[in-house]
Design goal:
This protein is α+β, with helices and mostly antiparallel strands. It is about 25% helix and about 25% strand. It binds zinc ion (ZN).
Length: about 475
């Protein structure tokens, strides 16, 4: 009888584990490049040839893994300008898959403008890459290790979630382009060990460019994201992970119009300073804590639902196409879904006859994910989404290139979770994702302004928004 009871108990433990015990693990790995004489580290963002002179604070790949006992998904966020789906995201997944073939990995970047160039665009001159291949390789391995460690440390967990929206969070998002549409929601998820009560992971998502110091900074730093994560780790323990959201259109600290005092000391902070970086991180930490306190537990061991779809987008941006032809943007170009570097090219009259691939509509392969866990619904967006595409608020301007274009689906209108979370630069960085009706590549400029509209120069093209929002709408529908 005793033996049968033991067998039954063992069976129920195993079955319980497989049936629906929520488990969470977390880990982080440093990805700070070495700064040494004779080997430049090109900082990403702003202009060409901005080399690092030192390290202010380390940069990280921060990961947490979530499992319902059947399916496991890991989210890893690197303090980098961006990682391409191909080769970087698929390479990181391949390293993870050698040890953990059944784990789905979402790889995102914070869009840090104070980290090394990982996209090739910010080298010494425009046609020389800023990527150091040894660093890229090491960074991928470190990022994969963070994921593997997070999954290996999965343990039964209690989860609490919350969100907060207020005017101050909106004011802390400077907006550099009309219309002034922001995405002030801050979302937080915290997992604690069921047995010990210790914090395993705190995940925060908000939206703003990590470029507080501007283009004259030459020190490596994780910007406000680093301050936020360090403060949450001090307060709660465990690993903190920060993901950016809809940061296009253009949300960032350089356009903040209000004074930003340090919330601890009350001391005002100058623009473009490390004091400002610290103040921003501490404000976000304060709001994350508030959101958690007001939040709610996730109960009933919900199922983890995942939808994954690969799509192709056209690469219409002429500058990017030149850079792709010259392998500065070093990712595969496709023709109707097949890799193609030789055919469908035309000679450019400049640049010594670099061959330019002709856009066929399916040039770059990327991926969209929808993840659902109880009241939490997360979508990944492969670039910098204009917040109108997340929340609505499209405006038709005189001067726009397609003022009468139909509006793309508004992503959050198709999300059904109580917490609607966007992970920007999720699994790819295709640049700005701009509503067609607001696309403005040629004069007259938006609202007949006299200065050129900024954004299109760093977008793959006008079709990306339609493909991303349309695909997400389909994935969100198929989930119900
Ligand atoms: Zn950007």
């Amino acid at each position: 009888m005793k033996r049968i009871c033991l067998a039954l108990a063992l069976f129920s433990v195993l079955a319980g584990g497989a049936r629906g015990q929520c488990m969470v693990g977390a880990a982080k790995r440093e990805i700070t490049p070495e700064v040494m004489e004779g080997r430049a580290v090109y900082l990403a963002g702003f202009g060409q040839n901005r080399t690092a002179t030192g390290v202010h604070d380390p940069i990280w790949s921060r990961a947490f893994a979530l499992s319902d006992g059947k399916r496991t998904v890991a989210i890893v966020v690197a303090d980098l300008i961006g990682l391409f789906y191909e080769p970087d995201v698929l390479a990181i997944r391949a390293i993870v898959a050698r040890e953990l073939p059944d784990v789905h990995v979402i790889v995102a970047s914070t869009h840090n403008h104070n980290g090394p160039d990982t996209m090739g665009l910010w080298g010494p001159v425009p046609l020389i890459t800023g990527i150091n291949p040894q660093y890229q390789d090491w960074m991928r391995k470190q990022t994969a290790k963070a994921v593997v460690e997070a999954v290996r440390s999965l343990r039964p967990a209690k989860i609490r979630v919350g969100s907060i929206v207020n005017q101050h969070l909106a004011d802390l998002q400077g907006d550099g382009r009309i219309p002034i549409v922001k995405d002030p929601q801050l979302f937080v998820l915290q997992a604690t060990d069921t047995e010990s009560g210790k914090t395993i992971a705190t995940f925060v998502q908000w939206s703003s460019h990590p470029e507080t110091l501007g283009g004259s900074n030459r020190l490596l730093t994780a910007d406000y994201c680093g301050v936020l994560c360090a403060d949450l780790e001090r307060r709660y323990g465990g690993v903190a992970v920060y993901a950016n959201g809809a940061i296009g259109g253009l949300l960032g600290p350089l356009d903040i119009r209000i004074p930003v005092p340090n919330p601890r000391t009350g001391k005002q902070t100058p623009r473009r300073s490390f004091e400002r970086v610290e103040a921003l991180g501490l404000w976000l930490s304060k709001y994350a804590t508030e959101a958690l306190e007001r939040g709610e537990p996730v109960t009933g061991n919900p199922r983890l639902e995942l939808r994954v779809r690969q799509v192709y987008v056209p690469l219409q941006n002429e500058r990017f196409r030149v850079l792709a032809a010259a392998s500065i943007i070093d990712r595969p170009l496709y023709t109707d879904g097949r890799i193609d570097r030789r055919t469908q090219r035309r000679k450019l009259p400049f640049l010594g006859g670099v061959e330019l691939p002709i856009a066929r509509g399916r040039d770059l392969r990327t991926e969209l994910n929808v993840l659902r866990f109880g009241p939490v619904e997360i979508v990944t967006v492969p670039g910098e989404l204009y917040p109108e595409l997340a929340n609505g608020g499209y405006v038709r301007y005189p001067g726009a290139d397609y003022p009468d274009a139909p509006f793309e689906p508004v992503i959050r209108e198709h999300m059904t979770g109580k917490y609607k979370v966007l992970i920007g630069l999720g699994n790819d960085e295709l640049g700005y994702i701009i509503p067609r009706c607001e696309w403005d590549n040629s004069p007259p400029w938006l609202n007949n302004q006299d200065h050129e509209t900024y954004g299109e120069v760093n977008s793959c093209g006008v079709e990306v928004a339609r493909i991303v929002t349309g695909t997400l709408r389909e994935l969100l529908r198929s989930e119900r």
